[in-house]
Specification:
24% of the residues lie in helices and 25% in strands. The protein is an alpha/beta fold and 272 residues long.
């Protein structure tokens, strides 16, 4: 795999609430990206408040989608996350799927654990990692974990911590259109224009490729928020809680088949 400054391996980030019953557009694409018919999948339900139910949901989905073997890892504590035997179950999987829920629960329980190390090892070995909602938010090195949508453009109201770091200088936000979260990513890129914000709508996702580009999949939209052309902001001059002014934030709206080049910060139109 070619070295890439943005992505550490094969990744698909999903915006949440993907169709699991009817057309399964996004999840079928996930399976297609695995690249083999007799694939093995490990499903990690740690982010969810109802991990057993989520496990059952994805057991059914991946059975329908032809998985040769499905391993459900219901990890609820750091002791479980550090269990060598549990981590070892991921050694031969082709796909690791991180379910939705609360991304802070996911990082708190799994951050720095043997299970996370096993996930990183599989990523480096060429396995595909896919996450939905909270399971996608943790891909970022800087991860949003709190911030009301209506307060996104007030200084300090968007809270971040370290994610799993599968991608660099990219911040994912999910359920993006349904929850009106544009202000959260504008604040992120205003405070650090090195970062690129990627807001993923429901039943949609981005396939991260080895050449530094992403392709949008699914039925909704993906919003790219680019702060590289910011000319002025008041972020340093206002107190916490104050409203943010910012000039020249670039925003792109992408749908299925469109893409974005993170190296060149360029909108990509489908070749067809």
């Amino acid at each position: 795999m070619a070295a890439n400054p943005f992505f550490l391996g094969r990744l698909i980030a999903i915006g949440g609430n993907e169709d699991k019953v009817n057309e399964l557009v996004v999840l079928k694409r996930v399976v297609r990206e695995v690249g083999k018919p007799d694939y093995k999948v490990g499903v990690i339900t740690t982010a969810s408040e109802e991990p057993e139910q989520r496990g059952q949901d994805y057991q059914q989905v991946f059975t329908t989608l032809g998985a040769a073997e499905i391993k459900i890892l219901t990890i609820k504590t750091r002791a479980q996350a550090n269990d060598r035997t549990l981590a070892k179950t991921l050694e031969d999987v082709d796909l690791i799927f991180l379910t939705g829920g609360d991304q802070l629960r996911l990082t708190t329980i799994m951050g720095g654990s043997k299970t996370l190390a096993a996930i990183q090892n599989r990523l480096e070995a060429g396995a595909l990692i896919a996450g939905t909602s909270a399971g996608a938010a943790v891909f970022s090195d800087t991860m949003i974990y709190e911030g009301e949508s209506e307060e996104g453009l007030f200084k300090g109201r968007v809270l971040t911590t370290s994610g799993f770091g599968f991608v660099k200088n990219i911040v994912f936000d999910t359920h993006f259109m349904a929850r009106g979260r544009i202000g959260r990513l504008v604040q992120i890129v205003t405070t650090n224009p090195t970062c690129i914000g990627v807001g993923i709508g429901e039943d949609s996702g981005v396939v991260l490729k080895g050449d530094g580009t992403v392709e949008v999949i699914g039925t909704g939209q993906v919003i790219i928020v680019d702060g590289s052309d910011i000319a002025h902001s008041n972020i340093m001059d206002i107190k916490p809680g104050g409203p943010i002014a910012v000039e020249n934030v670039r925003i792109h709206s992408l749908v299925n088949g469109y893409g974005y080049n993170f190296k060149k910060r360029r909108f990509l139109i489908p070749s067809s």
